[in-house]
Amino acid sequence: MMKHIPVLLESVKTTLGNIQGRTIVDCTFGAGGYTRAFLESGAKVIAFDRDTNVLPDVQELKKQYGDKFVFFNKPFSEIKQLNANDFDDVVFDLGISSMQIDNAERGFSFRFDAPLDMRMDIRMGLTAADLIKNLSEEELADVLYEYGDIKQSRKFAKILKKELPTTTFQLRDLIKNPNDIAPVFQALRIAVNDEMGQIKSALQSVHDLLRVGGKCVCVTFHSLEDRIVKNTFRKWTEVAGDPRLPVVVAPEYKLLKTVVPTDKELEYNSRARSAHMRGVQKV
Ligand SMILES: C[S@@+](CC[C@H](N)C(=O)[O-])C[C@H]1O[C@@H](n2cnc3c(N)ncnc32)[C@H](O)[C@@H]1O
């Protein structure tokens, strides 16, 4: 299985600036590519990942960096449990890792035949097969439409409810239009892991907890998560109040430069194709 190549890491490091002695929350540990780079630059790291498969990499970094590295095997919405004084900056590298997609038995990929699971955290929650079974036809159609932009979502939801696929290949073979295969898998994955709810909840906590001078940097991979991050950051950085009245409230945050991968990065990492890095700083 190919190890995950971190996306936009150099841009994230440049945006954060000098992190020597700072404490960074890495909300998406993955293969630890970002965390390792931050530790090597002299920062302390508090990391989250809800996948138990990341634990061997966590143990290795713990051995090397001791109490400079703290890890929570929990969803990153749990950042709300931290105190404002616990950290300086927060980083998200959203979505799934190459290890997750390439691990056949996780059920994320239509390239391998496996149980239709798709949970990032296999200790809890409904699998994609359970979700298809438990949602009503209408709810399932909404998931397919909202998270996969599937045009014939109602018709397809009806087929899914009738056939109740329990493996990746059974699901794949029910999708008539090959262009819909990846979007259907994406839609179910987003719903299984409540990915949009997680981002919204974590960003709300970051807004309230970040210290003055602290930065929040997000790398996104598709338009849905990017829209949430873009709109949230826009709201944080807008002047509040009625523009017709003399009293305006200065924004607490300023926008940092948005970055997309260079042609060079795309050459060695095709996963970076649709990535955007957006950031804000509390002022
Ligand atoms: C794109 S990978 C991160 C790769 C990492 N930056 C690196 O350099 O190795 C995303 C990781 O975030 C985790 N993840 C995604 N959503 C999460 C959430 N809501 N809570 C905790 N972990 C999450 C996934 O399990 C996956 O391991």
Helix content: 40-55%
Which percent band covers the strand fraction? 5-15%
Mean pLDDT: 95
Biggest β-sheet: strands ordered side by side in the sheet: 3-2-1-4-5-7-6
What CATH architecture label of the largest domain applies? 3-Layer(aba) Sandwich
What's the structural domain tally? 2
- Put simply, the count of helices is 12
Q: Could you state the CATH homologous superfamily of the largest domain? A: Vaccinia Virus protein VP39
Structural class, please? alpha/beta
CATH level 3 topology of the largest domain: Rossmann fold
Distance between the termini: 43 Å
Total strands: 7
CATH class of the largest domain: Alpha Beta
Spans of at least 5 consecutive residues with low confidence: none
Radius of gyration, in Å, reads 20 Å
Report the bound ligands by name, code or SMILES.
S-adenosylmethionine
Shape type: globular
What order do the SSEs take from the amino end to the carboxyl end, as H and E? HEHEHEEHHHHHHHEHEHE
* Main beta-sheet annotation: 7 strands, mixed
